[in-house]
UniProtKB/TrEMBL annotation:
Species the sequence originates in: Escallonia rubra
Lineage of producing organism: Eukaryota, Viridiplantae, Streptophyta, Embryophyta, Tracheophyta
UniProt KW keywords: Cell membrane, Lipoprotein, Membrane, Palmitate
PANTHER family: MEMBRANE-ANCHORED UBIQUITIN-FOLD PROTEIN 2, UBIQUITIN-LIKE PROTEIN 3 HCG-1 PROTEIN
Function: May serve as docking site to facilitate the association of other proteins to the plasma membrane.
Residues covered by the UBL3-like ubiquitin domain: 6-115
Entries under InterPro entries matching the protein: MUB, Ubiquitin-like_domsf, UBL3-like, UBL3-like_ubiquitin_dom
Entry keyword annotation includes Transport: no
Membrane topology, record value: Lipid-anchor
Primary subcellular site in the record, as a coarse category: membrane
Cellular component GO terms held in the UniProt record: plasma membrane
Record's protein name: Membrane-anchored ubiquitin-fold protein
Length: 117
């Protein structure tokens, strides 16, 4: 393969329809690396941006990309056009808020009331 074919032009489509990129990435770049780029270049004016790689899901050709895969492994031969730009959709899933831990045998939590007549 030539050096040009080892590079992919990728743009990242955010949920509001705006894009990050397009940028050129080597086919050997990991999905984790792409997510780190998205986090570092997330628009400052947008709320609820991702904080960690675990907060980001990348979708390409209808598939959620796995962190341990490379861009080259995730390519879809049906969707990729030589010299074209690949669009990957970005879904941000912030971590769930920690809920209060409840003690199972806490008498204050018991809502049962027994009435003897």
């Amino acid at each position: 393969m030539s050096g040009v074919q080892d590079q992919l032009e990728i743009k990242f489509r955010l949920s509001d329809g705006s894009d990050i990129g397009p940028k050129s990435f080597p086919a050997a770049a990991s999905v984790t690396y792409l997510k780190e780029i998205i986090i570092s270049q997330w628009p400052k004016e947008k709320e609820n941006g991702p904080r960690t790689v675990k907060d980001v899901k990348l979708i390409s050709a209808g598939r959620i990309l796995e962190n341990n895969r490379t861009v080259g492994e995730c390519r879809s031969p049906l969707c990729d056009i030589p010299g074209g730009v690949t669009t990957m959709h970005v879904v941000v899933q912030p971590p769930p808020l920690e809920k209060e831990k409840k003690v199972i045998n806490d008498p204050k939590q018991n809502k049962c009331v027994c009435v003897i007549l």
